[in-house]
Amino acid sequence: MTNETTFGSTSMAQGEAHLEAGEWPEAEAAFRSAALADPSSASALSKMGVAIAHQRRLEEAEEAFTRAVSVDPRHAPAWSNLGNIYRETGRLEQALEAYQKAIALDPDYWIAHQNLGGLYRQMGRTGDAVASLRRATRLSASRALRGAAPAGGRRFGCGGASAAALIVVAAAALLL
């Protein structure tokens, strides 16, 4: 393992810890260091974007997510996070495309299903929203029951508190 790889791994671990603690500037700095150590790391770029988005610097976050998907067009979390930025800035059709791309790349990525369900709800597509949120709930519960950790560590997104509330709504929908 090279020093750059070791440094990048250390920076990723530090960034994860800062994300977990809600320390956005520190997380951004750690992921920025990881991305400098490994410019081909879509994960570092995407997580840097998450930290930036939590600081409400949406244009910069969009740039980070766009760089992440250009480095690795198959990185579903970056597509989902890009969708969150599009949704937050009123570009709903682009958000829809980004979420669908994330799901096409990783059909078991429950966070993308959750984000898509929230978007459908916002668009007034209630039936689609319920279906997406039910799928998100099933996938999330299945992952939790298996004790499975996502590839590449814990997944963080930039959907905010409303995204967490949607999973509760989805769980309630399943009980009906």
Describe what you observe in this structure.
There is one protein chain. The chain is mainly alpha-helical. The protein has helices spanning 3-21, 24-37, 42-54, 58-71, 76-88, 92-105, 110-122, 126-146, 161-175. Helix 2 (24-37) runs antiparallel to helix 3.
> What is the count of β-strands?
0
Largest sheet: none
Structural class: mainly alpha
* Mean pLDDT across all amino acids: 85
How many helices? Answer: 9
Q: What distance lies between the first and last C-alpha atoms, to the nearest angstrom?
A: 52 Å
Helix fraction, binned, reads: over 70%
Beta-strand proportion? under 5%
Succession of helices and strands: HHHHHHHHH
Shape: globular
Enumerate the spans where pLDDT stays under 50 for 5 or more consecutive residues: 1-5, 150-155, 160-176
Question: What would a concise description of this structure say?
Answer:
The chain is mainly α and 176 residues long.
Keywords:
disordered C terminus, 176 residues, disordered N terminus, globular, mainly alpha
In terms of topology, how is this protein built?
Elements: H1 3-21, H2 24-37, H3 42-54, H4 58-71, H5 76-88, H6 92-105, H7 110-122, H8 126-146, H9 161-175
